[in-house]
Amino acid sequence: MKKGTLYLIPSLLGESPTEAVFPSANREIISKVKYFIIEEIRTARRFLKKVCPEIDIDSLTFTLYNEHSSSIDISSFLDPLLKGEDAGIISEAGTPCVADPGSLVVRLAHESGIRVVPLVGPSSILLALMASGFNGQQFMFHGYLPIDKPARARRLREIEQEILKKDQTQIFIETPYRNLQLLQAITEACQESTLLCLATSLTTPEESIITLTIKEWKKKKPDINKKPTVFLLYR
Amino acid sequence: MKKGTLYLIPSLLGESPTEAVFPSANREIISKVKYFIIEEIRTARRFLKKVCPEIDIDSLTFTLYNEHSSSIDISSFLDPLLKGEDAGIISEAGTPCVADPGSLVVRLAHESGIRVVPLVGPSSILLALMASGFNGQQFMFHGYLPIDKPARARRLREIEQEILKKDQTQIFIETPYRNLQLLQAITEACQESTLLCLATSLTTPEESIITLTIKEWKKKKPDINKKPTVFLLYR
Fold first, then answer.
1. pTM of the predicted model, to two decimals?
2. Which residues in chain A have their CB less than 8 angstroms from residue B129's CB?
């Protein structure tokens, strides 16, 4: 039997107009898919209603996945695909399988010979890297740093060393309500000449992308509290 | 005087329909910009004609930049922006300032207090990472590996070690006519159990994304010669 296709469907990063962040072809694909693998039902429904206002939500099947899903759960997500139905993974924000746990679903799809099609959409990490002015020819994404203060300071110093050793841009993120604590930790751990880019609320009317030295950031109190922010370090 | 905005304008990765890879808002922004910073005039003209068929190419100013541009050349690119005109950077393929030398222009823009706005579009690196099934929560992009055979083999073994040490997906690219040589080098240098994803001709009708072990790739001869391909390693 012909298998279905697994679409990787980017979602919004915030209150952006859809025509600014999605190719129109995404809408046509979404409107044909009946099975969705999602992180949170409320966000997924709101997203689908916004992109395809005419969608009949009650005709769709949603399966929840998150960092607690076991690989047995996940392999059952693939049943509709094995029976020839298309399915889509939707992330909480941005592109699925980048800075979220979705990649395990894709991995099992490859093992089952299911075609995987990634759709174009907004990725805060990629947009931040483009707009930082930092090296885009070599870079490293670390995800979240440790929350424990001494461990975080140690990690930041290691990360700063990587810039010098490998000439790589260093990228990481934080839960938005801890952004100011992370900024404080960076200004304490890193050298004054190191460059920090803060890319905040990307693709929304509040978008802000600022690159300054650590010395300059020490004098600022940027408006990043509770706002999704990507942190980038370079020299 | 109010400064202009520097837009980072993604271009096509190949023969893709524009509605599949660009938000419609990109077209409106492009149609208002008169100054473009580009890598190659022929590609840039063709791209602009495809996205905005009604565009008057002769009314536009193009400035070439590439890895040979000095920072003095580049700072003159910013003159129109300082005079209040908007400008755009267009990459040869995909998103500007990622895997290309454009970031120096953006860096100087930040230093001059010019607003930088990244637009959404196709990035082969990001699409490949999403669709690989590999870890998207930690990853490293290396750009091009050395061409010299012993240096390349050494580098590949180092890269493979990073997967084990840091649990990071490792991503790199090659000039398309050398893709098969690089694949050969990978299968010789890496362990049989390591996973390799080849993501080829992304967003085009020929798109192919295949994840297999090195042992399995040894028996295959994939159709990647002269086709843009992203290489990803993980375990």
1. 0.96
2. 97-98
